[in-house]
Write a structure and sequence with these properties.
The complex is a heterodimer. Chain A folds into 3 domains: 58 residues, Uridine Diphospho-n-acetylenolpyruvylglucosamine Reductase, domain 2, CATH 3.30.43.10; 115 residues, Uridine Diphospho-n-acetylenolpyruvylglucosamine Reductase, domain 3, CATH 3.30.465; 100 residues, Enolase-like, domain 1 (2-Layer Sandwich). Chain A contains 13 helices and 12 strands. In chain A, the strands form 3 sheets. Chain A has a 5-stranded antiparallel β-sheet. In chain A, strands 9-10-11-12 form a 4-stranded antiparallel β-sheet, sandwiched between helices. Chain A has a 3-stranded parallel β-sheet with strand order 1-3-2, covered by helices on one side. The longest helix of chain A is centred in the last third of the chain and has 18 residues. Chain A is globular, with a radius of gyration of 19 Å. By secondary structure, chain B is of the alpha+beta class. In chain B, 25% of the residues lie in helices and 23% in strands. In chain B, strand 13 and strand 14 form a beta hairpin. The longest helix of chain B has 24 residues. Chain B starts with 20 loop residues before the first helix and ends in a 16-residue tail after the last helix. The relative contact order of chain B is 0.14. The interface between A and B is medium-sized, with 33 and 31 residues.
């Protein structure tokens, strides 16, 4: 780990000032001179690996007193960005009205990590691509723009089949983000020029020609919270992986259904573990609307969801697996007792 | 899962709690990297990013500029050390590739520089600033990569002397009523003990003390002395606890002599804790293997022909092979047997021992093939094994000293509900889950090696046992204390055990499941020497001594009947008669059949291991049967293991609690070797990719909800004085086959290449 200056921000404005002083928008995140430190569960690892090399760490944990509330309104939900994964996963109101959110958190990482990690940090977590995390590989467009991609023809079993480009196939690894994008959450952002809100779907950027830029946050901006309108008691998160805990998804699906008298009134489907960014499948989920639910329609949704997928040597299987996960998730959501 | 200590059955010791349990759970147990040092310099390794080629330039100027850096050592300014000889060729070393000796690169992750600094952090920071340029050659990564060379193991590996063969295999196979031919493959695996590869070296004048996790402190001492060119008596290795080893800490890796040399040069202690990913390259691993098994049988299931051919990856520099055909050609009764083991060289680091080195890959092949044959014959897999159960091994016709394999199967079948299994594959569906049951045999050779011990007995009954054994989680402290307490008839809490120090009497490597059999046999013998001294004091008389001469057993010191019997000691009376307050005895024990140079070798840190199929007129193995229930989700093909059962017979069980713990861990590791573990290699560069504990998968609790161990009572008086067969490596053999056999039962699909991954399931 390289030496850095530690700055503890006692309030949002101090944090924004400290963060904003040196950040630049178009450099790789790994070169950002200032980084916000919340739970630290990804950042510290990457600093030890010499992937992240911040000169300044701005500790925003004092902001937790203002930014960690879980507010269940009348058919709505607001989550503070500094809320811990474990606290939100254990919240009875979240479990009842938003099981998909509770499940994404409960099935992620380990108990120890969930007790440290914040929601804001969770959505900002970095890819697990081995070639990104090991600086002895020169080729990584995310780390060294223009250097190439070692994963493209390397060991790429865990890599993405959706949202890829010829520059990068690194998978977005998170779970919670799939629930957020599925439920059309809003991201609340604060910056030195004031607060703003964006749709969750606008937060992450697919790699395209600039995989080094991963989000639309401006330099020095912080996420203060997430908001969801409407309640989704009929929702599930299905996660297929190589071991039953403490492991990232090979393929996952966040599904929410509104079924009345056997007819689907509303449907939300997002997939994880298979795409470069949190991935909503709007065209696929639209097939469900106004239809009676059955396995056949679930299979059609799954097919449509992966119609644009492109596999490589080791991850081709994810296309089929992703479809199967969607079908299983939809069947389970449809049969929920609520 | 039951957590209570098992009730001891006949020929089992008491299930006393682990001697070191409290120290471990309270953090008081001192591991190598915990040892306090005065003013240490911290070392950090810089390793090669190519697997084959040479270093053209190595720039350390930037690194030296980091505040706190003392110096940076590369091949250009490192001391030239004496060459090391491979452990399995009669030397001490895990590899003969000697880093920092030239600009040649022969493996990925080879040490190319070492930074020394005032702090660990400065050393690590500086390591990022060491810049090497290479001329890289295209490396050969493994079996499927161009450029491998293949040759029989026999003739290359000192310890592999025989491709076992009997009868006329080709003819018998040709004429067999039923034939099976199948190919299997196991992946590279890394031990990944929780404790990292740490080494601290401290010089006092011309004497060196090494703190390093070691399964063989005497071997390490002699190996380092050889490489440094100094008197071995000037080297001391101290290591009270090993935080997991599984074979990777059994032989000397290059780092130790290098760190010792740097400490000598700097005139201050040097401490190294290599990182997790570096550990994948600077030590050993289980190399990938390929197998072809051919079985011929009669329609009623009797084996008439068996052939097992194995291929194993090794490095260019060293011929290492596990050669599991020694076991697989002897497990079942079959008149016509053939085998061949070949080594396939690639540009990789040298592989080495990993828990049950030979049996894990080779029994995966044989026990999968037996299951395939059972299905082909429509015979229950347990019955097929009963039909071919062997009282004598088929190659040399030697009788097993004891063999309870079928008792293990029968006991296990009852406990597991085997009778309810549907033999037709894919016939049980529970909701969305396909359910299957599978089983496999396990066995492990009973190994023993010469060992010395020193024991003190005080008048008040306190006992001190000194033996350079190793606590690798095996319960060495506990069972050694129990052995001494039992022979000297004192409560176990009166016994203090000192192990893990090369200044103590030598014990063999804690490998090959030799530890308990060897160290306890030595301790028992030396305790009997003490008993003899005490008996002599109260029963003087020549006849006693004469009788002693007649009863010389496998030990070196004549022991009288009285001493060997369980006749109680009267400490007060004996010590009064002797007129002393403390009696101390030293002894050297060697197993039957050990070569004449055994003790000389022992004092040079070398092991003369005997047992298993190498014995003169008998063969000794521990046996077991393992059962696995598999559930496979019909949508996602995720594989779950709701139940595992292992039934084992391993001779005398010194302590059912620590033994159960060993076997339990073994079973979990067995599941892991089927479903989780596998080192992934980037073929383009011959580099390990998943070199961390997030990506190299080992099971978590959720993967193994119910694991049960049953130990059968077994007495075997033909193996060693302790009556112990060794169970450290028995648990994780065959489990991989049992898992795949259960998957076949659940799905009708045979998986012959490990690890199982959900994309391999096609149902």
């Amino acid at each position: 780990m390289r030496p850095f200056t530690y700055f503890r921000a006692n309030d949002p404005s101090a944090a924004l000032q400290a963060l904003g002083s040196s950040a630049t928008a178009n450099n790789p995140l790994v070169e950002a001179e200032s980084q916000a430190l919340a739970g630290g569960t990804t950042l510290i690892d990457l600093m030890k690996l010499d992937v992240m090399r911040p000169r300044t760490l701005v500790d925003i944990n004092p902001l937790a007193s203002a930014w960690s509330a879980v507010d269940l309104g009348n058919g709505s939900l607001r989550l503070g960005s500094m809320a811990l994964m474990s606290d939100v996963a254990d919240n009875p109101g979240v479990q009842k009205n938003y099981p998909v959110i509770a499940d994404t958190l409960k099935l992620a990482a380990s108990a120890q990590l969930r007790n440290m990690a914040t929601l804001g940090g969770n959505v900002m977590q970095r890819t697990r691509c081995s070639y990104f995390r090991d600086t002895s590989y020169e080729a990584c467009n995310k780390r060294n723009p223009g250097s190439g991609c070692a994963a493209m023809d390397g060991v790429n079993r865990t890599h993405a089949v959706l949202g890829t480009s010829d520059q990068c196939i690194a998978t977005y690894p998170g779970d919670f983000a799939q629930a957020m994008i599925a439920l059309d959450a809003t991201v609340e952002i604060v910056g030195r020029s004031g607060p703003r809100s964006i749709a969750f779907a606008e937060l992450h950027k697919a790699p395209g020609n600039s995989p080094q830029i991963e989000t639309t946050l401006a330099p020095g901006e912080l996420i203060s919270g997430f908001a969801v309108q409407g309640a989704w008691p009929r929702s599930v998160y299905m996660k297929a992986r190589d071991r039953q805990s403490y492991e990232f998804a090979l393929a996952s699906a966040a599904v929410a259904l509104d079924v009345q008298s056997g007819t689907v009134r509303g449907a939300r489907v997002a997939v994880g573990g298979v795409a470069t960014v949190p991935w909503r499948v709007r065209e696929a989920e639209a097939l469900l609307k106004g239809r009676p639910f059955d396995e056949q329609i679930a299979r059609r949704v799954a097919e449509a969801a992966f119609s644009g997928a492109r596999g490589r040597r080791h991850n081709e299987f994810k296309i089929d697996l992703g479809k199967r996960v969607i079908v299983r998730a939809l069947l389970q959501a449809a049969s929920m007792e609520i | 899962m039951t957590t209570a200590a098992p009730e001891p059955k006949a020929n089992m010791g008491q299930p006393i709690p682990r001697y070191d349990a409290r120290a471990k759970v309270t953090g008081k147990a001192e591991y190598a990297a915990d040892m306090p040092l005065v003013n240490p310099a911290f070392a950090y390794l810089v390793t090669s990013s190519i697997a084959k080629g040479r270093i053209d330039t190595i720039n350390v100027a930037d690194a030296k500029g980091v505040r706190g850096v003392i110096d940076v050592f590369t091949h250009e300014n490192s001391e030239k050390l004496e060459k090391a000889k491979l452990f399995s060729n009669g030397g001490y070393a895990s590899t003969t590739i000697q880093p920092l000796s030239s600009n040649e690169i022969s493996e990925e992750g080879q040490i190319i520089a070492i930074v020394l600094a005032e702090t660990f952090e400065a050393a690590r920071e500086a390591s990022y600033r060491v810049k090497a340029t290479y001329t890289a050659a295209a490396p050969t990564s493994g079996f499927d990569s161009p450029g491998t060379t293949t040759a029989p193991a026999k003739g290359q590996v000192a310890q592999f002397t025989e491709d076992a063969k009997v009868g006329d295999f080709p003819k018998a196979f040709e004429g067999a009523e039923v034939r099976l031919s199948a190919e299997y493959e196991t992946p590279p695996q890394h031990h990944n003990p929780l404790e990292l590869f740490a080494t601290s070296c401290v010089w006092h004048g011309d004497s060196l003390t090494i703190y390093e996790p070691s399964q063989f402190v005497h071997g390490l001492k002699h190996g380092v002395a050889t490489q440094l060119g100094i008197d071995p008596d000037r080297v001391r290795v101290i290591n009270s606890y090993v935080g997991g080893a599984f074979g990777c800490k059994g032989s000397m890796t290059p780092r130790t002599a290098i760190i010792a040399s740097l400490a000598r040069r700097l005139r201050r202690p040097v401490k190294l804790v290599a990182t997790r990913d570096q550990g994948f390259n600077i030590a050993t691993y289980r190399a990938e293997t390929q197998h072809r098994v051919e079985l011929g049988a009669s329609k009623n299931g009797k084996l008439v022909a068996l052939r097992h051919e194995g291929w194993e990856i090794s490095s260019r520099a060293d011929a290492y092979a596990v050669g599991g055909t020694a076991t697989t050609t002897r497990l079942y009764d079959c008149p016509n047997v053939e085998s061949l083991v070949s080594i396939v060289r690639a540009d990789r680091n040298t592989p080495g021992f990993m828990r049950s080195p030979a049996e894990v890959p080779y029994l995966f092949a044989l026990e999968s093939a037996m299951d395939e044959l059972a299905h082909q014959l429509r015979i229950d897999p347990i019955e097929l094994r009963r039909i071919n159960d062997a009282a004598k091994e088929p190659i040399g016709g030697k009788p097993y000293t004891s063999r309870a394999m079928m008792q293990c199967f029968d006991e296990g079948a009852k406990a597991f509900g085997w009778a309810g299994r549907k033999s037709e594959p894919k016939s049980t569906l529970d909701g969305d889950w396909l359910v299957g049951l599978g089983c496999a045999a396990t066995c492990y050779p009973t190994h023993m090696a010469p060992s010395a011990a020193r024991v003190q007995l005080r008048r008040d009954g306190r006992v001190r046992v000194e033996i350079a054994g190793h606590e690798i989680g095996n319960g060495a402290y506990t069972v050694i204390a129990q052995a001494a307490a039992e022979r000297l008839d004192v409560p176990v809490d009166k016994v203090s055990v000192f192990i893990g120090d090369s200044d103590l009497p030598p014990a063999p490597v804690a490998g090959g499941s030799t530890s308990t059999a060897s160290t306890c046999s030595a301790v028992i013998m030396v305790c009997d020497q003490i008993r003899q001294k005490l008996f002599k004091a109260v029963m003087p008389g020549a006849s006693l001594i004469d009788r002693a001469k007649e009863t010389v057993g496998v030990g070196q010191t004549p022991i009288t009947q009285a001493a060997r019997s369980n006749q109680p000691l009267d400490l007060e009376k004996s010590f009064d008669a002797l007129g002393v307050s403390l009696v101390e005895e030293y002894g050297e024990w060697k197993p039957e059949g050990a070569p004449p140079d055994s003790f000389r070798a022992m004092h040079k840190g070398q092991v003369r291991m005997v047992g298993g199929s190498d014995m003169k007129d008998k063969i000794a193995y521990a046996f077991g049967a393992e059962f696995v229930e598999i559930r496979i989700n019909r949508w996602t093909h995720e594989v779950r293991v709701p139940r595992v059962l292992g039934v084992f017979a391993g001779g005398r069980i010194m302590n059912p609690r620590t033994a159960r713990s060993q076997l339990l861990g073994g079973l979990i590791w067995g599941v892991s070797s089927a479903l989780h573990e596998g080192t992934e290699i980037d073929e383009r560069y011959a580099r390990y990719v998943n070199d961390n504990l997030a990506d190299y998968l080992v099971p978590v609790n959720a993967d193994t909800p119910s694991v049960e161990v049953i130990m059968l009572s077994e007495q075997d008086d033909q193996i060693n004085p302790a009556g112990v067969k060794g169970i450290g490596e028995l648990g994780n053999v065959g489990t991989n086959a049992a898992v795949c056999n259960a998957i076949f039962n659940a799905t009708g699909q045979r998986i012959r290449k490990l690890p199982v991954r959900l994309e391999k399931i096609e149902t």
